[in-house]
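Problem 12. The chain below contains 54 residues. Write out its predicted structure in token notation.
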Amino acid sequence: MANKEIAQGLFVTVKTVEKHLASAYRKLGTSRAELLVALAPAGSPSDEAAPDAP
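Solution.
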């Protein structure tokens, strides 16, 4: 999923998404999004279908 898509889904700016991802990468000692996906727990919110917007 692209940062723009994430930002739109969360109603935040792309810059906000980029800052949060950079923080997560730094804390995990990586710069690879694939590693974050591998580390995400099963059944995390990203695994569930998004509810329909009103």
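Discussion. The first helix runs from residue 3 to 10. Students who got a different answer should revisit the alignment rule from Section 12.3.
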